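ERR on first pass: missing label on line 2. Operator R.T. fixed the label and resubmitted. Corrected input:
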Amino acid sequence: MNWGWLDRNLDTVLEDLSEHIQIALVSLLLGCLIAFPIGLIAYRWRAAYGPLLAITQVLYTVPSLALFVLLINAVGIGQTPVIIGLTIYSLVILVRNLVEGLRAVPPDVIDAATAMGFRQTRRLFAVELPIALPAVVAGLRLACVSNISLVSVGALIGTGGLGQLFIHGFQIDNPIEIWTGIVVTIALALALDLLIVGGGRLLTPWTRAVR
Amino acid sequence: MGETFDWLTSSEQWSGPAGIPARLVEHIWYSALGVVIAALIAFPAGLLIGHTGRGSLAANSASNFWRALPTLGLVILVFRIEPLSIWPVIVALVVIAIPPILLNTEVGIRGIDPGIRDAARGMGMTGWQALWRVEVPLAMPLILAGLRSATGQVIATATIAAFVGLGGLGRFIIDGYSVRDIGEISGGAVVVALLALTVEGVFALLQRSLGPKEGRRRPRRVSGPAVQPEEVHA
Amino acid sequence: MITLHDVTKRYPDGTVAVGNLSLEMPSGEITVLLGSSGCGKTTTLRMINRLIEPTSGRIDLDGKDVGAVPVHELRRGIGYVIQQSGLFPHRTVAENIGVVPKLLGWDRKRQRARALELIELVGLDQNMADRFPSQLSGGQQQRVGVARALAADPPVLLMDEPFGAVDPVRRGALQHEFKRLQRDLGKTVVFVTHDVDEAVLLGDRIAIMEQGGVVAQFGPPEALLAQPASDFVAEFIGGTRGIKLLSLRPAHAVPYVELGAGGMQGWTVRTDDGGRPAAWVRPGAPDVPVEAVRPDGTLRDLLDSAIASPARAAVRVDEQGVLLGAVPFDTLEDHLPQPARTTAEA
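pass 2 clean. output:
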């Protein structure tokens, strides 16, 4: 076992790690930014939800490697096709969770809010969205972990990230390199998952209230 | 774009062991193997956990961990165990397919109104009868959703597995990449995408015809995952 | 005063939920809309705060057309209490109560002070202020619901079967407490229910509704019980009209006699150290438990007490539960209300 490899190549690992984080988080952020207005529209106009879901579902079904390749045809190589692909995947999860979360708000709560004199917009931000937050957080967790796993796939077609480590390690038969790549990826996913869960709990104290 | 079209329509791609039809069949075969074996394991397990309520926490925590595992890494690891056979890779596919089927089955059974289960027992059905005649049909939409999700992930992972030598449609992408043949890469991607979409379509039709009408009331859950619990991509 | 002028609600498919309803609900009183499900009582209620817009007709609130005021302003001045309470799960009890004050722009200190005031008013402990609704029982949630409706001190309160989801044992307590509260607050209350006993207990005026929002009879509870205007009303009120009428007469209006040494028909009441009655006793016979009636009790309670007594006499106590005396059956009989006139003669 070539343990020394790790000491000598720490820079590379860290570089791959930071690139990986960058791609994953940028996609997640973009996914959130786009999912929010789309989700609200789908919630307000029920007729739009069906077609919207169908379109996003189609895109989601295309396997990641294939999607990245097709996107390369459109925007060239590098990080961009992977970011676009992962944004689309994140979008699908986030829109669905947002809409379902909003729909799960108890109707009597909405009724009471309207009766108390809330205007629709204020009601959305003060009542409906906060109550839907746990569902959105669940979606964020899913999308985040998914993204981190998929960035590695991008390495097969030349994008950076920790996937480089297992591909290179595989090609030159260096198990340390492979394992490093895998362990760091898993650690990253679990760490971010924990962050999101923690953040979610901070924002939703009422879900933890014990009788 | 043009190269892709040329590649797709050139006759040599449509014949022989490395042709599109051959690879397509390989891909379907590996994917089907993975899903079926996984279902044989995960479906009963899910029924058990959902019906008895025990082991749910373990199942959920384990799958949380699995989700964090990068599929490419998994494929590479298992290949190194037994490089001359495809079986490790199939095992990897099975492992990928188990969580969605297991969790969806579990949630599907668990989410059934306890009153319905009670009524079934009250009518004189044994635990087994209640399970097969009442609970499974009611949980069918979620179970199918789990199968659908698992199949999608397996098809995608099989594509990636071409990197370690597995056959199937991923070969076009991987081999095409190594010789920089854009037509082959993109052509392969197109075929894979079409396969995935077709399978998805079949499932959609299946769900519409097999799933029971939404007559029962789902217990409302304001916190927690909104819809299918396992919709992670591969 | 809330006045409905010829109000109609017709739905696009042709169903008429409420047809040409005219009704006057006096200020400071509880007007009950009583009827079975689907008769239009809830629709009528929800037209007052415009959760449902009438198809035709006008509703006036203290002389002003509710349709002329911006709807959000209107609603912030009307309290609304529903069966499932509709409390915001993501806000504490105090924050829930402070919702309308916050909408009206009160500062935080004032919101908080008002919330604490109301928590006490509805009979809850102040340490509930920072709990979440999920931590409260159904009855407690309903109290918070009422507190929330009262927060901005609106002149009008709309209540849609507010105690329906609470178990019957606690429902009685809530009803009595609300009645006491209303005596102090004097709000104009519109109260929807299908429960006749609740209507008789709480209503200053009851409107019995038939399908389509048609008012079969409108008047104080005694009028409905003693002189039902139609067979529908009589049937709806049910078989025990006479006994229900008894619950409208206060116990303190019936004179009692002090129990002398001889007692009544050989029975005397044994009291404890505080002077509270413990049992009816007679030498040689087993003790019989006493049903004691307080000053705020009703004639119905007295009748109940007398029937349960071996001496056929009701036991009267004061507010602290100390024995005052007994009411023999003859006296009760003298105070029974007059029998109803039959509808044929009316």
